Amino acid sequence: MAKYVAAIDQGTTSTRCMIFNHAGDVICFDQREHEQIYPQPGWVEHDPEEIWERTRTTMLRSLEKGNIDASDVAALGITNQRETTVVWSKSTGKPYHNALVWQDTRTDKLVEQFEQEGGQDRFRTKVGLPLATYFSGPKIRWILDNVPGLRAAAEAGDALFGNIDTFLVWHLTGGVNGGVHITDVTNASRTMLMNLETLDWDDEILAIMDVPRSMLPSIRASSEVYGHVAEGPMKGIPVAGILGDQQAALVGQTCFDVGEAKNTYGTGSFMLLNTGTKLVQSKHGLLTTLAYKFGDAPAVYALEGSIAITGALVQWLRDNLGMITSSAEVEALARTVKDNGGVYFVPAFSGLYAPYWKSNARGVIVGLTRYVTKGHIARAALEATAWQTREVADAMQQDSGVALTALKADGGMVVDELLMQFQSDVLGVPVIRPKVAETTALGAAYAAGLATGFWQNLDELRQNWGVDKTWEPQMPAEQREDSLRMWKKAVTRTFDWID
Are 45 and 206 in contact (CB under 8 A)? Predict the structure, then answer.
């Protein structure tokens, strides 16, 4: 009888392999960072081969750290940074170009071209997304247009597209020796190419974006056996779950009921609200997306508020400004002052995502005086995460008609207690941190475990969820609304910076 389920969590800055027991506890893990490549302002790339190497290493090291035999692992799930786009050769396994990361804005001119007929919401009723540099479809087109000979290779069936989930599954299940070329509904829903109702690639949009269907993976459920690991320390283990990272966190937080919401605080932050089998079109700048599809059960949808820069802003303070030497130091620096000193920091480094969707916005720090110290800057950086989340929560309530009563929070930034308290203050509702904060990997493990019978049903998963800490709002309502007004004023200063 297998004792564990493994999950690969391939994120924007690092790759982890985590191993969970039946209670959903982390038994062991290994984590490796990979290089962030910035060829030009606004361009962000990853080396797919480096990510594949890191994935294999973490799989081996996690087993070694836990002294676990692969025969005790029931299944392997995968969760991944979404929208990050890879095109590689079926015959050699080599990428034709570095991966274009979800934050990359080089497709802005293509997006403007597609907007000329029908505007930013041209495809929204079909795909639930506005035209934006964020999504994979325009990224595929850019690679096709800029790599000599690639379009011919795609038409001939040698060029394969995938987000990182597809690239890893293909390699895990054999690569050039019969690797399975698939994705799941959650990742497919982030390409701008999948019809939300049919759960298949949309031929009209493919024709408009000039992306050959022959290079696209087949779309499968989020929880089913896709194949088996072909070689290495986990050889023979079923690959049985795929979820985009934010959907994986929703599953890991066991938000299986309509109206349940979670927010993941990572490189960016992403709030998802379960809308059940009902496809809700947003009128307030949110995305309509797939939440999950377990086996043959109907697909479940979600509304999502996507914020590009939250944890990445702390990294920026560390790496670009040298204000801190590790991300963990930001809270202590922010606590050296009692408030933000009138400073607001809007980190529109890649434009603004939800609810504004302005790719021509750029970051601003406003309210500077001689009084301001680096402590105020640090505090304003943390507060930016909470304010962006507040705006998404407001949009969610307007779209769904459901008032937020509490927020389940997860991801790397939830260890920052100053941020969690401020988040509760600006939302005016409790913020809840679960016992297992690494809900993204846990969600992928749940999907794989459900497909292989390691867990029998959703109730078993719900029983695993538990509260670690709850923050209650302490800020007076008048102060909250006055500060929100100043935040919104700061946001308007980012608009239309790029001509």
Answer: no
